[in-house]
Amino acid sequence: MIFSLSEPYGARDWWPCKDTPNDKADSVDISLEVPTGLIAASNGKLIETEVNGNWTTYHWQERYPIATYLVSVAIHPYTVFYDWYYSPSDSMRLEYYVFPDHYEDVQNTYGLTKDMIGAMADRFGEYPFIKEKYGHAEFTWGGGMEHQTLTSLGGYSEGLIAHELGHQWWGDMVTCANFQHIWLNEGFATYSVAIWYEKQYGDDKRDEYMNSKKYFGSGTIFVEDATTVGNIFEYNLSYAKASWVLHMLRHVIGDSAFFAGLQEYGDRYRFKSAVTEQFRDVMEEISGKELDSFFQRWIYDEYYPIYEVVYNQSGNNLWVRINQIQNSKIFKMPIDIKATFTDASESTWVVQNTEISELFTLPIPDGKTIESIELDPDDWILKKISEIRLDTLGNSIIPNEFYLYPVYPNPFNAGVTIRFILKNEGEVQLNIFDLTGNRVWNQSAEFTIGTHAIKWDGKSQIGNNVPSGTYFIEVSNGTLIKTRKMLLLR
Question: For the chain, what is the radius of gyration of the CA atoms?
């Protein structure tokens, strides 16, 4: 067979074009002359089929704006069959070009396509190319490619079909302005599968799917170097973790604002291109919430929060201390806390966690005794939980012992924050040593009970910049010494 696959930078290899996703062609006409017996499928509507002896010409027209990498051809002696999608106010033919020996195999999952379109239209707005078509053309490349109005498919699983369909809104209707922002295509399409599973099968199926997309490694969703295909299509970041950003954002601003925001984003950039900041601005406008720190932390920074939770009950109050113990910057997130009481009843609160160590006081109904608590019980945050423990001594406000948190950021350049918690007030000595054991900086002061933060600017005691390298922060309260390692990069 003959097929095209142009993303990200391959369209220029087979047709003359301005090959950048932020400048779409307003329309395309495609004429394909093939030996009679082959079928040539492409974007848009089939205007004419002309047979001339041993050759047949297929004339396709795409009248919606289209990014160059979404222009496609798929040529094979296909078996062709049709279905229909009916919206409340319109209808559209679905066209399927399949390998003849796969005709029976694809019926079940291809048959779900019309329902998938309806489910996504409910959430994202009407299918954007309803005046033309939607369909699938099989090809021999593994996976799929969201060619506008006619997805190329190398398989026929339900999840693959839903993913590529989601791209018709996110990637085709609204396209990332450059491939550094590819998550606006791939993360959205990956989350479209979750939307379909939720609609068709319920929350449990959605959550099972999202659990399979958890990624706890390094790297940023924003693609720093978009010159290589591997960087752009790093699955763990551009697809999996990016889908979690949307899942978390949904919980941060609520379902109503989230889906209204998606529809507004789609309307505002319909048949155009966008970058992360434009999506962020729309979601801020619709939700009324400041989201800059959320996007900065999850799109442009690395990693995830690791929570340590200590709690106890005092009368009608639940005291909960949430510590973030990851070796990176803090994540400012709303967190659900659910308490189960000894009578099997439950209460849930939402707290705004903005500090590395933070104490929350939550009201308990009269006469209730807590059996246990859960942090983020419905799994809306991409996170790990180190432990959740009951502080039987009633010291949830302060730790049972002197504690030094991992420094952040680490590695660092302009400065580093050193945080520690004291059980008792008193003098604390802070020393920073290089690898040779030479002390380069120190500070001594009286501190009260609780959490404290000290910033070191990477300068020696006399104010000179110390060189790049590994350093150790040593914090002593007179009886205990705690040490952490840090890396300075200039």
Answer: 28
Phi, psi angles (nearest 5°) of residue 255: -60, -45
For the chain, the first-to-last Cα distance in angstroms comes to: 54
Q: What is the C-alpha separation between 119 and 102, in angstroms, rounded? A: 26
What is d(CA 401, CA 103) in angstroms, rounded to the nearest whole number?
A: 68
In angstroms, the CA 333 to CA 356 distance is 11
User: Could you tell me the CA-to-CA distances from 10 to 7, 52, 72, 99, 124 in Å, in that order?
Assistant: 6, 31, 11, 25, 29
Q: Which amino acid is at 27?
A: S
- Which amino acid appears at position 289 of this protein? K
What does the chain come to in residues?
Answer: 490
Complete domains list, the chain, with CATH:
2-169 (3.30.2010.30), 181-300 (1.10.390.10), 306-390 (2.60.40.1840), 403-488 (2.60.40.2550)
Q: Torsion-angle region of residue 425: left (phi > 0), alpha (psi -120 to 50) or beta?
A: beta
CB proximity list for 359: less than 8 A, separation 6 or greater: 319, 320, 321, 396, 397
pLDDT digit string, tens, across residues 2-51: 999 999 999 999 999 999 999 999 999 999 999 999 999 999 999 999 99
Tokens 């604390």, located at residue: 428
CA distance 305 to 433: 28
Of the candidates 230, 235, 223, 233, the one whose C-alpha atom is nearest the C-alpha of residue 275 is 223
Task: Let me know: does 106 contact 137? Beta carbons within 8 Å.
Answer: no
Contacts of 115 (CB under 8 A, 6+ apart): 200
- Model's pTM, two decimal places? 0.84
pLDDT digits (tens, 9 = 90+) for 169-217: 999 999 999 999 999 999 999 999 999 999 999 999 999 999 999 999 9
In whole angstroms, what is the distance from residue 40 CA to residue 6 CA? Answer: 17
Which residues, in sequence order, are CB contacts of 341 under 8 Å at separation 6+? Answer: 347, 368, 369, 370, 371
Q: Which two tokens stand for residue 343?
A: 């009578």
Q: How do strand 317-324 and strand 2-3 relate by DSSP bridges?
A: unpaired
Q: Which residues contact 30 (CB under 8 A, 6 or more apart)?
A: 42, 43, 44, 59, 60, 61, 62, 71, 73
